[in-house]
Amino acid sequence: MLISLVESSLKNTAIEKTIFISNTKYTSIAYKKTKLEDEDIVTQYNESKELKTQRYLVSKDGNIIGIIEYGMESPRAKKPWLTLLIIDSQYQGQGYAKETYYAYENKMRNIHVKCIQIAVHATNEKALTFWTALGFVKYDERIFEGDRMYSLEKQLM
To answer: Which of 60, 95, 85 is nearest to 136 (CA)?
Structure first.
């Protein structure tokens, strides 16, 4: 069975928190702590609303296995951007992140998006390897909130 995307909301705070907690290396890099609290998820929702992004739970065979969030106009480049793709650690290594990404990419291709951008923490080697393997190329480097970030993009057309 293919993955499906289910629109998320604040009522899913506990589920989302569990997914983040299972990814301590990522939360250590992105949030400077290993365990997120409910208020951290609420902050993410508030930021999502401000940035006009869409947030979905990733479902596979009835199990919530991850989160994907994207927007159609990034603050800096004004291009479509993927702001979050995280898979619960118990489901990693099974191709679900790639499957989720390709579902998103196909959705973007269907509406004639020319490129997708992402930002990755420079210290997140696992993510950099993942994204470059999917065809993303680094086009910028900057400091954001004290962290070195790489901006990557993938041309779709």
So the answer is: 85
Q: Is residue 40 scored above 80 in pLDDT? A: yes
Q: Which CATH class is domain 4-155?
A: alpha beta
Show the beta-strand stretches assigned E in the chain.
Answer: 4-7, 53-60, 63-71, 81-87, 115-121, 137-144, 147-155
Say if residue 76's pLDDT is above 90. no
Comparing CA positions, the residue from 128, 123, 140 lying closest to residue 76 is 140
């979050």: which residue's tokens?
84
The confidence band for 1, taking pLDDT boundaries of 50, 70 and 90, is: low
pLDDT given for residue 57 in this prediction = 97
Residue 46: phi, psi to the nearest 5? -65, -40
CA dihedral 3, 103, 39, 151 (to 10 degrees): 150
pTM of the predicted protein model:
0.93
Contact (Cβ atoms closer than 8 angstroms) between residue 8 and residue 56: yes
Mean pLDDT of 130-149: 93
**Rg, the chain, Cα only:** 15
